[in-house]
Design goal:
Blueprint lengths: L3 E8 L14 H16 L3 E9 L9 H11 L5 E4 L2 H4 L3 H15 L2 E4 L4 E2 L6 H31 L12 E3 L7 E3 L1 H15 L4 H10 L5 H8 L17 H8 L8 E3 L2 E2 L9 E2 L6 E3 L9 H14 L15 E3 L7 E5 L2 E5 L14 E3 H19 L2 H47 L5 H48 L8 H7 E6 L14 E5 L2
Parallel strand pairs: 1-2, 1-3, 3-4, 12-16
Antiparallel strand pairs: 4-5, 6-7, 8-11, 9-10, 13-14, 14-15, 16-17
Helix pairs in contact: 4-5, 6-10, 7-9, 12-13
Length: 523
């Protein structure tokens, strides 16, 4: 069989020899040259060169890395060649899962030149595992060191974020210092003055939108500045209630640096979690204020007067579960004449915004409950139960047949292995020649490989079926639990529903006519 190799190279964030922001680094070029030379010297056919530029060894979202794994699973090559194991991954978990697990299952050899990692050499598996453990320690120590440095910078009042707060820019002459962005700062002042004068947050958003003022993210995008988040919804350039609200409570506008609001639980975690307010790092007077203290105090006093008492321990049935069908934003709740409604906030911030989803909560409860009971009733209906039972019996019979075939494969494999052993004895006793031994052995080994592949494929099918049966049983258990349910609660929403899309009833004929509703079930 021809040896087909996939070459993988990675530039770590620590490498500093970049030619420019667009070009690959010399490090990447040198890696490729070294690996191509090695592959050529061994007469290996190069399938593809996979390269990730500016990615950590612990980053599982590397695009070329993930493409390589996908191609490996599809058996596009049988060797993966890297400069070292740490260039492929620094995580011990991935060393075990991919190099010692998936690659072994897919028949792929892993070779790392610098650290002599070679899965064809069974004797160095422990050294590869030790290297993986050392890399894991390296990542953990590196993370702790970075955290210590960043915390120290925060305590000194240095700004360490990837992008500046709207109203400010990063000072090009002083690292960690913010300077006022006059154009955006004027908008910040207008927001504070409008609110202090009695204008509500939604109305402030409408005023800014009607003036054609882009929201913070859109403003930075147009200016070519770094900004957080991505444009994932329609009307993403519009100001909204929460944009105004978060601005009015941000102390950084009075010259105080407030950081450390979120943290990652571990260096492996990609999701941050909020830090209690008392643990935030706050340093006063680090940069020029946009809002003076007098205006700030007036705004905070009004915010306190407008604040609604929190009802602790209770979460609305549809909280964070409903989205506008037109713009994708989460619906907000409102109360009028004793009835609760869900509505899209985007409609109220601009005269040319989306149609605005709207529904009475009691009608939505009825619709969800009705569809749920209909699904459950249909699922357990006697007419539909018989085909399911017959299908399950057929699948069980197929499973038994596959298990018998797997057992037969195992017997044949053992028989062939003994035949290889007997061949060796015949060769040692000069009953057959070396050439005959090599020929017979190759045939037996090929049969063993084919039988092994057949066995693994049959086992994989059984595992898929068992997983399917488990999912069906889990679904039945869930539906059985909520059979004949008469009232929705938060637990039902969390368990059964991912989210609900709501539209607007544009041509209402009867009072109880419902808008378009699409329920995305979890089962």
């Amino acid at each position: 069989m021809n040896e087909i190799v996939a070459i993988y190279s990675r530039l770590s964030e620590e490498d500093k020899d970049k030619l420019n922001e667009e070009d690959e680094s010399r490090s990447i070029q040198n890696q490729k040259s070294l690996l191509i030379s090695y592959a050529t010297s061994h007469n290996w056919e190069i399938y593809q060169i996979y390269s990730d530029d500016d990615y950590k060894g612990s980053d599982r979202s590397r695009p070329a890395f993930n493409q390589l794994l996908k191609d490996a699973e599809n058996h596009k090559f049988n060797i993966v060649l890297c400069k070292s194991q740490s260039r492929f991954t620094r995580e011990l978990e991935l060393v075990e899962k991919i190099i010692h697990g998936d690659f072994a299952e897919w028949g792929i050899r892993f070779v790392g030149l610098a650290d002599n990692a070679d899965t064809a050499n069974k004797g160095n598996k422990k050294s590869r595992q030790i290297n993986g453990l050392v890399n894991e320690w390296y990542l953990e120590d590196l993370s702790d060191n970075i955290k210590t440095v960043l915390t120290d910078h925060r305590k000194k009042g240095m700004h360490i974020g990837a992008f500046a707060l709207y109203g400010y820019q990063k000072d090009p002459d002083q690292k960690g210092h913010l300077i006022v962005d006059p154009e955006a700062a004027a908008v910040v002042k207008e927001v504070f003055e409008l609110y202090a004068a009695g204008t509500g947050r939604t109305n402030i958003a409408r005023i800014l939108n009607e003036k054609g003022i882009p929201n913070p993210m859109e403003y930075k995008k147009r200016k070519g500045l770094k900004y957080g988040g991505a444009n994932v919804h329609a009307h993403s350039s519009l100001w909204k209630y929460y944009s105004v609200s978060s601005m009015l409570e941000n102390e950084m506008y009075i010259g105080n640096m407030v950081q450390g609001k979120y943290e990652n639980p571990t260096y492996k975690s990609k999701h941050s979690r909020p830090v209690p307010r008392e643990k935030w790092i706050r340093v006063e007077g680090t940069h020029e204020p946009i809002i003076d203290k007098e205006l700030w105090e007036r705004v905070q006093k009004r915010r306190e007067e407008k604040a609604k008492p929190m009802c602790t321990g209770k979460i609305g049935i549809f909280a964070a579960k409903t989205k506008c069908m037109y713009c994708g934003y989460t619906l907000r709740s409102a109360t009028a004449k004793g009835f609760k409604y869900l509505k899209c906030p985007t409609k109220y911030i601009s005269s040319n915004a989306c149609k605005g989803a709207f529904i009475a909560q009691r009608f939505l409860e009825q619709a969800v409950l009705g569809e749920l009971n209909s699904i459950i009733s249909s699922y357990f209906d006697e007419a539909s139960a018989e085909p399911k039972i017959l299908a399950a019996k057929k699948r069980e019979a197929e499973k038994r047949k596959l298990k018998q075939e797997i057992s037969a494969c195992n017997s044949q494999i053992e028989h062939l292995k003994k035949a290889v052993q007997n061949l060796y004895v015949d060769k040692a006793n000069d009953i057959i020649s070396n050439e005959e031994y090599a020929e017979f052995k190759a045939g037996f080994v090929d049969q063993i490989k084919q039988l092994t592949n057949q066995r693994e494929e049959k086992q994989r099918i059984i595992e898929l079926w068992e997983e399917e049966i488990h999912n069906i049983q889990s679904r039945e258990n869930i539906l059985q639990k909520y059979r004949n349910v008469e009232k929705l609660d938060r637990n039902i929403m969390e368990t059964l529903i991912d989210y609900i899309e709501i539209g607007r009833c544009e041509h209402k004929v009867h009072r109880n006519d419902l808008p378009p509703i699409i329920i995305h079930w979890r089962f």
